[in-house]
Amino acid sequence: MIKFRAWNKVDKFMTVPLDIQLGSDGYIYWIEAMGLNGEHDEGDLDVFKLEQFTGLKDVNGKEIYEGDVLENRKYRSIVKFASGKFLADVVGTISRFDVIGETHGSKVIGNVHENQELLKG
């Protein structure tokens, strides 16, 4: 399933996009999302950072998105999309793994926007 969440860079909160509009060139040019008080919020990529659902869930059944911080018994990692796939960058190292192999035994403990303290190695 393809779905997204959106970090509102202006008002600093995570939301769910209601509409994502693409230009004729295939690039995102407008996003409509739910605002803090239930109203509609609109903007472009200067306002929102879109993060895609990986299609995977952690050990507790929580959906894993780009920007999530995962933790297992050995380390913490940040979920990113690069080289055409979802990867887990281990915090404080240059190690990088395929997220598919990281979901066994890992749980989402936050995200890079709301939990900066989790990024310290």
TrEMBL record:
Superkingdom classification of source: Bacteria
Residues annotated as domain YopX protein: 3-120
Signal peptide stretch: none
Protein name in UniProt: YopX protein domain-containing protein
